[in-house]
Write a structure and sequence with these properties.
single chain, 84 residues, mainly beta, 5 strands, 33% strand, elongated
Amino acid sequence: VAPDGDGLPISSGEVIGRLSKGVGTPGSLPDFAGLAWRMHGDTDGPQPWDVLTVSSAARVALRPVAGWPAAQYSTLMPLGYRGG
């Protein structure tokens, strides 16, 4: 745990998560696996934080998978905060 004033401006609280299929292929056919979650920042923050990831072979190379546990997840865009 980062000391007060260090790290991201996110306090402990609820996290809402979602798993999804990218294309919506039927049944167990391979598809792009999506994992997203929303975290609420401090009360003085303007908006919640949404983090979106997708199954990938490398950061920008999407990879269809046959199951959620087999996936490696990555963002399609780099994450940054305060210029970092």
